[in-house]
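FORM 7B - TANDEM STRUCTURE REPORT

SECTION 1: FIRST PROTEIN
SEQUENCE AND TOKENS:
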Amino acid sequence: MTSNFPILPSNFLSSFIALGEGFTTEFKRTGTSNLGREICAFANATGGVILIGVADDGKIVGIRNHNGLKSRVQSIARSAEPPIAVEVESVGKVLCVTVPEQHSKPYSFGGKFFIREGATSQQMSRDEIREFFFKEGLIHFDETPCFDYDLARDLSPEIWDRLVKRSGLPVGLDKQMALSNLHLIKKSVMTYAGAWLLCTDITRYTLRAGVTCAVFRGTTKTHILDRKDFTGDLYSIYEDCMAYMQAKLNTALIPHARGRDEHLELPEDALREALVNAIAHRDYRSTANVQVHIFHDRLEIVTPGGLPAGMREEDLGVKSVPRNPLLFGMFYRMGLVEQIGSGIRRIRQICRDYRVAEPVIEVLEHWVTTTFKRPVEQVEDQITGEVTEQVTEQVTEQVERLLFTLGKDTCSAHELMDRMGLSHRPTFLYSYLQPAIQDGLVEMTIPDKPRSSKQKYRITAKGKALLEEIEEASS
């Protein structure tokens, strides 16, 4: 096994000791007293180095009989459960015991579990052992029993029928047997995965298991325009969040020979994949919830918990390690996720096909944020007339409404939208303003700087003549 802690030659020992004891370094004056505890603690952390023959103050006192001590160190390491691989080497008068990072955690010694905390090794309490198991992915929270869920009280016929329909289960199955076969109940107790899917309010069982969606003005969180907390069952939360994003993002109406198609500014399938990944892979023990933030220039999906044990940032799009495998399996059955490990790849490919920027994925210790860049510039460019021939098709009623609203005034796009009671900027650009400009009915006040923040619009002579004709015809 390759060590992350190289054995240092004697001329470097003094500078190494000068760093003092810490998270990855321990000094022992002599012998093997409590050595099993130290080795175990390093094995349960990120590895470390134990220098035997060095006093607590860093003074080298040295040891005798290196060969005999090496044998005892190896024997102690092998007596751990499971055995711990260590490297033992003499560095001058000091015996250096290197504990590489281990991959069969957790380790115990003498029936007890130890962990490295700062510069000391501590025995783990029951709660710490439980937390350690969760952190290392040895226990999955979604598979643990949810004692707050009462099968007789909470599993109504409507809730059960909903699961049957969503999961494609045969009608008429015995509930207890079906839930047991799906592993959603164990020993007649609902698991958390089952509780999250078979409920009307998920916060009754896990307080922060919902999803919060919010729209902000501009590019910061200073001014919030809208917020909604979704707390039903996880499938309903997913659907509600998708509906929210679709409502708050811009939708363009693209004319064609058979009518018009709605075109969401970001690919719906990519948003679905990113949202379901956040819900399926989040850490449900976290005191935070999944958050969807919509800014002027981007959409963020923020997932609490960081990456699950066994995953590295470079693994994204290559492999998948579900933090909640039972829940993920149910999502797969419900058709919400594709094959394991394909999510990130699919998102990136969908964005490429949609001709928008691929999302940026930021990984921190306790958070994973997926950021989609909104194609704001594409929308703004359409004011300049840089559009396809399809978009130039005139929509008479909408152009007339724009002309009557504008009248003799000079207005910005924002002022016009306010007057007309329109909230979706792309619809206003595609269906109202752009056709009017293309037909020479409306003109810019600063035509050489079409994207100027001071840009306004006014009716042309041709537009005024058309208005007069419309008024005469209606009189």
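SECTION 2: SECOND PROTEIN
SEQUENCE AND TOKENS:
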Amino acid sequence: METVDLARVQFALTAGAHFLFVALTLGLVTLVAVIQTRATLTRSPVHTRMTRFWGQLYVINYAMGIVTGLVMEFQLGLSWSGLTEFAGNVFGAALAIETLVAFFVESTFLGLWIFGWNKLNRWAHLALIWVVTLTAYASAFWILVSNGFLQNPVGHELVGGALRLADFGAMVANPAARVAFFHVLGGALVVGGYFMAGVSAHHLRKRTAERDLFRKSLRIGIAVALPATLFTATFGGLGFETLQPAKVAAWLGDAEGLAAAQAAMVAAHGPGDYLPPVEWVRAGGMTMMVVFAVLFFVSGASFLLMLFRPVVLRFTLWHRLLTAMVPLPFVAMIAGWVFREMGRQPWAVYGLLTTAEAMTRSRTRR
């Protein structure tokens, strides 16, 4: 295995692990904010306990997301300095804004929320979790602006062998970023909804004392998961309009399309293999589609079942199914990530910088 392949595997494992925590926390913080809003408006003791329970799980996973994110940033600097030297002045702007949002604003307000229980006015405490939620969305948006530039580089100019930011508005408005943001946001809500429903189902099956807490939590999780699944699929479909021609051809298994994309790249950049790994692209896309179908079917059936309180409390087989479903949204998210990232290979910055050139001290086109 070549050094560049080892570096890609290392970064993929780290980024993939980080993405799992991002997907869960982005969806879970939204649910926690909604539950705390209900608790604040109604002074409901059960919703207050729900806020504390799910809030603790959110904080634990948020901390893991920070740890894996820091490792990923170190790997980006150590293994992929060719990318930062060539295009860091462009996509680095979005990463810098994300860092300010995540590590200063979001983390600060989350700390106030954690230590503000029974110390702050309940409305001020509620405002804190909504600030955390909105900054989490902002953080995801700026990450996808950065990634969108790698997928579809716009708003730049080439100066002295490196890219410079020429149009910040064009980079922010990049369709490859905007559509992906809503797709990822919907997917995160699916992850959060199924996580809440699955954990609640486990506790109901075990006859945990807090049955009312987990009954309500299960219903909230399913009520969010069903529309979120449809929302995610909608923007996933729109996202196909922003895909690179070679990625579309690889997904469809279009040999003529692949040949045309290869010919166009050779004409523009000289001899080389510019086709993505077709098997990986098709496997990632197919896995994402199949898992989506399962999630949609289960969430639709579960939406009907949750309307009956005795079923929610006592249907053990359904509880086992929901618990077993918890990993599936994560599988769909990772499969979609593989489809998106493998589909732009062999480019780190599509059409401008190959993955081999992006590696530290590597300038050999492969």
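SECTION 3: OBSERVATIONS ON SECOND PROTEIN
Strands lie at 156-159, 162-165, 347-349, 353-354.
The mean pLDDT is 91.

SECTION 4: SIGNATURE
Preparer initials: ____
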